[in-house]
Amino acid sequence: MTKRRSSNDGQQNYTKLDNDYVRNTDKAINRKIQARKRKMRRIAFFAIVPVVIIAFLLNIISNQNETLAAKERKKDEANQHLSELKEERDSLNLKIKQLEDDEYIAKLLRKDYFLSEKGEVIFIIPDEKDKKGDIPEKKGKKDSKSEKEGKKDD
């Protein structure tokens, strides 16, 4: 009941015995080879899958850090804007309190509209531009223009 197998390899010519021992050893060798293949697949799976998962998680963390940084910048800008608005509100509240005072309103009217109290005389002092002579030249030019317009009207 033994089968003869011969190798097709030209260098080695041998015949393999076909009995229970040889079959059992061949099965054991095949099992070891299959077990080694399974082991390598397992190692590859447990090496590649965690790397992929870690890469995915790192990507998520980097995206979250970017969005967090953008939101923190917006928060800082909003806080700065808020502080500016609070300062403006405080100045406006002060202005409201001042405008409720009649003396302040009178002072403001005298200053802006050149109004005077009884017995007060208002003197207009020229600005620094007037002292340099810039404005009189402009007045002279305006006068010459008005003269030209006057001649046209005649």
Any key phrases for this structure?
single chain, 154 residues, mainly alpha, 3% strand, rod-shaped, disordered C terminus
Q: Which of globular, elongated, flat, extended, rod-shaped describes the shape?
A: rod-shaped
| Share of residues in strands | under 5%
What spatial order of strands do you see in the largest sheet?
A: 1-2
Mean pLDDT: 81
Low-confidence region ranges: 136-154
SS-derived structural category: mainly alpha
Major β-sheet annotation: 2 strands, antiparallel
The ordered H/E elements are: EEHHHH
Number of helices: 4
- Helix fraction? over 70%
Give the oligomeric state of the chains in this entry, treating copies of one chain as homo and distinct chains as hetero. Answer: single chain
Distance between the termini: 145 Å
Number of strands: 2
Notes on the protein architecture:
The structure is a single chain. By secondary structure, the chain is an all-alpha fold. It has four helices and two strands; from the N terminus they run ββαααα. The chain has a two-stranded antiparallel ribbon with strand order 1-2. A hairpin with an 8-residue loop joins strand 1 (5-6) and strand 2 (15-16). It is rod-shaped, with a radius of gyration of 51 Å. The protein starts with a strand and ends with a helix. Residues 136-154 have low confidence and may be disordered.
Q: How is the secondary structure organized here?
A:
Layout (H helix, E strand, L loop, with lengths): L4 E2 L8 E2 L3 H80 L2 H12 L14 H5 L1 H20 L1
Antiparallel strand pairs: 1-2
